[in-house]
Amino acid sequence: LPLLVHLYLYTHAARAKVVPTFLLLGPSGAGKTSLVSLLQRRSLNLEDPQAEAVLTRVSQVSSPASLLLPPSIPLGSNKYRSDNDVALKDKQPTPYVMIDTPGHGKLRSDQALSQIQNPALRGVIFVVDSSVLDASDSSASRDTAVYLHDTLLSLQRRKPRGKTKTEIPVLIAANKQDLFTALPTGAVKERLQAEIERVRMSRSKGLGTVGQNSDADPEEDILGGGREGKFSFELMAEEYDIKIDVLGGAVRGEEAGKGVRRWEEWIGSCL
Ligand code: GDP
Question: Among candidates 162, 57, 62, 76, which has minimal Cα distance to 123?
Fold first, then answer.
């Protein structure tokens, strides 16, 4: 019995302080760790994006960072309040948690994508390096697309916890927009959709030959469902209510901090 009491207290305490959580995904080198340090500095009101960042460390484990959303960023939950209410409530920064994850291939499914089941999860931020997505470096863009494909498929398969399933929105942060080799945001979106379509085609061929007589559900195993036609982010919204936004910016470099406010506004819209 003491164990039960312990368990009760534990779950009770855990439920009492659920901080909205965001999952930070993306291939190694995209800028995840740099983004967390930038958001950390902004949380501390040290709004100098040029300030030397905390040294980017190679993350081998998922690590949660406690952050604050500046009071000037509108919150989604305030949408239906009057302006006066918002002004009063918005004086306080809003706490949230960001879980940085290792982008290295072998650790993706175990340590990064398993976090999609986290009950506190409010959104997924997938960071891409916009400068490696041009056709000349197709191995990097394919790697990015495979990881994004698997992320979206995990979200599509996510099982509901309670009676209602609230879908997790996705922000694709098209980072490194300061580099002259970077694809512009619209082109990043096109490129990722086209690459994901290729991944989807080759995966569905695999399913067709292997799983013919098994009880695998093709609708569940193919990203976007088994529907005809090309893959698009809009399809995920139509079929599964999973909203995907692509917003460009730069964490480091000459234009450090550019677009970060828009990323924070996206975070705010999920709160
Ligand atoms: P992670 O592996 O996704 O955590 O990526 P890091 O945050 O460690 O960043 C990888 C490298 O990209 C580092 O050398 C960063 O300084 C650099 N980097 C990150 N963001 C930007 C950016 O917006 N512009 C430029 N030019 N470099 C960046």
Answer: 76
